[in-house]
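Researcher: Let's try something more involved. This one mixes different molecule types, so please make sure each is placed in the same coordinate frame as the others.
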Amino acid sequence: MNLTLRQMKAFAALVATRNFTRAAEHCSLTQSAFSTLISNLESDIGVRLFARNTRNVELTAEGEVFLNIVNHLLPETERALSEMRDHVQRRKGRVVVAALPTIFSALLPSIISAFLRDYPGIELIIEDASNGTCVDLVRNRRADFALCAYAASGAELTTETLAWDTFYFVCQKDHPLANRKRLSADDLQGHPIVVFEKASSIRQHLDAAIYPKQWLHSFQVHNLSTGVGLVTAGLGTTVVPTLALPQFDLRNLRAIPVALSINRREICLLRRKDSSESLAAQAFISLLRERLAKEVELLTSRLATAG
Amino acid sequence: MNLTLRQMKAFAALVATRNFTRAAEHCSLTQSAFSTLISNLESDIGVRLFARNTRNVELTAEGEVFLNIVNHLLPETERALSEMRDHVQRRKGRVVVAALPTIFSALLPSIISAFLRDYPGIELIIEDASNGTCVDLVRNRRADFALCAYAASGAELTTETLAWDTFYFVCQKDHPLANRKRLSADDLQGHPIVVFEKASSIRQHLDAAIYPKQWLHSFQVHNLSTGVGLVTAGLGTTVVPTLALPQFDLRNLRAIPVALSINRREICLLRRKDSSESLAAQAFISLLRERLAKEVELLTSRLATAG
DNA sequence: CACACTTACGATATTCGTAAGGATT
DNA sequence: AATCCTTACGAATATCGTAAGTGTG
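Model: All components are placed in one shared frame. Result:
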């Protein structure tokens, strides 16, 4: 017995009309095809559901029993398929994104609002997380994908570079280096700077970029905002990627490009290899592919204007 | 989109095993047929449900959504079909029978117990009713069928005679006619008898059977038991069909066959013409066809022994 | 005899199994 | 190399529509 949505619909239509011809039209079938459909349904179930002659179509006792069943099952099935359709057409769903705080705050807001406008039914959850946490979240399926700075494309995970940013030296206007147009790693030797904790992605990138040399550390902080505060208060200088610059008030500070051995920080899309992302997540990803690099450009050009 | 029970079963099997080959076996299909089944399901729905390679089969995000649906819908559907099967196999159901009180009490008890033994899951409701009420109950579908004495086979209803009974004169042992072996309608002229109300089936039959003559009435009663009481108390005599005789204590009374112009009272099965009876009702009907006449014979022979 | 359901039958579409292909470990 | 999913393809099955048949009012 292989009960079919079509059989239930046909049955319901015949109950409603009590007329094969009209029920057949309602199902977009010829009367004959409809007749055999009902007849097959009856022989599948093993009992006549309709007592019919050429003038009257009525339910049998077993037809009444089946009607109760169909009255329950048919709406359930159609509701379920409609729910499924909502997901397929991206009217429903959930996207969980893990992103580095700087990426989140500097690049995502306008992309998020575009996404929410295009897919108002989709629940969007963005977790700001450290690079390592991003990787873990994706690996454990706690996030659909991540936007982070670097990741090993291993057995499970795959990365794709969507954009890059570069590094800037940030200092007070009266700093000795304040009026330089461009700086090298060597220029910064001897100037104490605020660095981020070892685990932070900025710090790891910088450590790799200037290896084997080292800069002079003044403070070591955990959060970007702490570093911003220190520099703003004139207690230090720092080196941060482009995406961190909006956190600083550049009317009173200088941001000068720094040339490093690894000059670009990649902004990576990190995904699972099994391509099990939801359609909703895929929609967000294609929006990112389309707009993330442009967002970086926009940011850079705004900074050039400000500087 | 024509969702199928088979599709849901296949999906559930694949979720459970996460292996096409084993799921295919579970569905009694070749692995290849199973693969195209899943593939067709996916293209019907419009999205991949499984992220699969040769080593791993996993649900996609949309597959999870569909799993929630199937987890709900599949048990519902199977429960419904099992319910239907119970009715088809007569493990469930309801039979409503209308029957004349004499038929009910004299013939049905042993048939009822046989039916309840054979079909323990079926609810059996027997309404004792007058002949006219029997007809109405069947016509209005309040009863599946009726056992009554006579009925016009009209446009809606059809009758079938299952058995007959005959009429007896019942009197005290010291009545003048008490030792006769056989009586004619004429023999009863001048002997006052207890009659039943005009509407009763016994009365109507007797009126028709002796027309245009009439018997002398002593009392007119509504219920058989009243008549029984009167005769037993020696306050009258009466004429009743075979099926009513068990109500009398024949150790102290005489029951003598009466030859009438319409000598036999039919015991009819009254049904609707549209043959919309439930399978349960059909089962009861075939039991009646098989055993009702035998029950009358049994009753008659017991009476002959007693008399 | 007109209307409505059923049956017959050839055409089309779907589903099946066998067998070969491709990918991953 | 072994395992597992996919694809190709011919065969079996199911479903469709046209058209003729049947029965009822």
